[in-house]
Write a structure and sequence with these properties.
CATH superfamily of the largest domain: tricorn interacting facor f3 domain
Number of helices: 11
Strand order of the largest sheet: 5-4-8-2-1-11-14-13
Number of strands: 29
Number of domains: 3
Largest sheet: 8 strands, mixed
Length: 547
């Protein structure tokens, strides 16, 4: 997802270590954010979401056929749907089921036995006026608007607020369906574009059409989207690592000419990210860019785009270096999420850094691939101006509470620092590719990512991750120059922090391994100048200089 650009409040990135207060959590937060007993007993296998979109009165009427595998025999199932949407009927094996509502959670009592290992299906019918998004994608819901030709233009975006804003589902990221069919009915001549491949387009007697989109891979809930407009379509093929990748572009009719030229960047993005991360994760479902009325989002195999066919982010360079104006930020950033977010998905939203840190960092890797390592390092350092250090990057577990927006720029600089520590670019690339192979199409927890990187880097990185993900302070390299020698240590850091760091003393490079105790580096001559390598996201402080 996008990040909102903020301004670093303290000069030179030096943090006071102040912590923001967490909100008070409610029962509804727990029902949404935890694996409740009514969720834990069944494994989601399939969705068939069917929705009729009514622009005239801003309503959705539809159903969701939910397939599942029984892990443990139970009879009560939790399905999520947020008001003002309402479940009207639930059916299984031809029987009407009873259900009760508890806020956003609906508890359905099953009648048929649920033996371990069995496969079941549940049909949930629903309707209502879904929440209108006043500021997509940061405020979730449905946007009901018009394009420049006064045609209806209707789009969904719901990452933070949840897919259950507009359709009934198991609204927790830990469990994904193995596949999904999305059938959307809209008034003609409008067209709906959703995830996966278009299997069929039905023209109905009531002057509507129904598009059937099939997703053959696991898909996270928030990645599911509908986009209704006066779309035209064009197509090309990218020769990728796994063969030919179908690339489809759906844009408003008056955008075709500029889109055909501007979207050539899609092949450049695929080239760079297949180099760094490995093959595009959804060859079976194709790659799509879909024009929308908001900046953009990483909807799986249906990346939405609204950056005005311009480079930068809304015409701005997020790095303030000039390199950010050499590519379309939205196209690159949101497409990068196909690897981290859609293929590798956080198990709990508290770990959303797995999505956003790696993809904020992917912007740097894109620059590296086309303009070189020094350019990419400058880009990454430039994004430090967007860091707030207001609270930890990892959020609170089991209550649907993500961490600080620093998961973007601070997370990217954490990974950039990690690249310096590993000090072997090919090894670092193989770690990134290895993550995408090891956790392909999986939901993961932070400790899995931390453990994989530590193992394959050959370095115990637990304290490193504790410092940057779980603490707000920026570690400070403290040093003193005393009669021809230098004393040094880490401060403003977690207990035991011992990250090795690259230092230049009067222009000569040293790798040091400071601890929180003073250590001494003896020199044969008087030390005049000490610099920490600028690609390490740390602060430095001269305690004293005694000649």
């Amino acid at each position: 997802m996008l990040h909102k650009i903020s301004v670093l409040l303290l000069v030179l990135g030096f943090s006071t270590g102040a912590f923001a207060q967490n909100p008070v959590f409610t029962r509804q937060d727990t029902l949404r954010g935890s694996v409740t007993p009514e969720r834990a007993w069944w494994d989601l296998t399939y969705y068939h979401l069917s929705v009729k979109v009514e622009p005239a009165d801003s309503t959705f009427v539809g159903s969701n056929l939910i397939g599942y595998r029984v892990i443990e025999p139970k009879q009560i199932m939790q399905i999520d749907l947020q008001p003002p949407m309402e479940i009207s009927r639930v059916l299984q094996d031809g029987l009407d089921l009873k259900f009760r509502k508890d806020g956003n959670a609906w508890f359905i009592t099953l009648i048929s036995p649920q033996p371990t290992g069995s496969i079941g299906f549940l049909l949930v019918e629903y309707n209502g006026k879904p929440q209108i998004s006043k500021r997509p994608p940061w405020q979730g819901g449905v946007s009901w608007g018009f394009d420049q030709n006064d045609n209806p233009f209707i789009v969904t975006a719901n990452q933070g607020d949840g897919s259950s804003l507009w359709w009934p589902c198991k609204d927790h990221p830990y469990d994904e369906p193995d596949s999904m069919l999305i059938s959307i009915t809209v008034p003609e001549p409008l067209m709906n574009v959703s995830n996966g491949r278009l299997r069929q387009l039905d023209h109905n007697p009531d002057r509507t059409n129904t598009s059937h989109w099939f997703v053959s891979n696991p898909i996270n809930n928030y990645g599911v989207n509908i986009n209704v407009g006066d779309y035209i379509h064009f197509h090309d093929v990218y020769a990728g690592e796994k063969g030919d990748l179908d690339c489809d572009y759906w844009v408003l009719s008056y955008s075709e000419e500029k889109a055909r030229e501007h979207f050539k960047q899609a092949h450049l993005m695929l080239e760079a990210f297949e180099y760094w991360f490995g093959p595009y994760p959804f060859y079976e479902d194709s790659y799509k860019l879909v024009e929308v009325s908001y900046p953009g989002m990483e909807h799986q195999s249906s990346v939405t785009y609204g950056n005005g066919y311009k480079n930068g982010y809304g015409g701005n360079d997020v790095s303030s270096t000039g390199y950010g104006m050499k590519f379309d930020f939205i196209l690159v950033h949101e497409s990068g999420h196909e690897w981290f977010a859609n293929s590798i998905t956080n198990w709990d939203v508290a770990d959303m850094w797995i999505h956003e840190s790696f993809i904020a960092y992917s912007e740097n890797l894109y620059v590296d691939y086309f303009w070189g390592k020094e350019a990419s390092a400058a880009y990454c350092r430039g994004t430090r101006l967007n860091i707030s250090n207001n609270r930890a990057i990892i959020g609170t577990y089991n209550v649907n509470y993500e961490g600080s927006g620093d998961m973007y720029s601070k997370g990217a600089n954490m990974l950039h620092t990690l690249r310096q520590i590993i000090d072997n670019d090919e090894k670092w690339r193989q770690i990134l590719r290895g993550l995408n192979e090891e956790f392909y199409h999986q939901t993961v927890k932070t400790e899995q990512i931390e453990g994989y990187i530590s193992e394959h880097a050959g370095i115990d990185l637990q304290l490193f991750f504790d410092q940057y993900l779980r603490d707000t302070r920026i570690p400070t390299f403290e040093y003193a120059l005393v009669k021809g020698s230098m004393r040094y240590r880490w401060t403003n850091c977690v207990r035991g922090f011992n990250m090795r760091v690259k230092i230049y003393i009067d222009g000569q490079l040293y790798w040091l391994e400071p601890s929180q105790r003073w250590q001494t580096l003896k020199e044969q001559k008087s030390v005049e100048n000490v610099e920490v390598d600028k690609d390490f996201f740390v602060a430095k402080f001269l305690v004293t200089k005694i000649m």
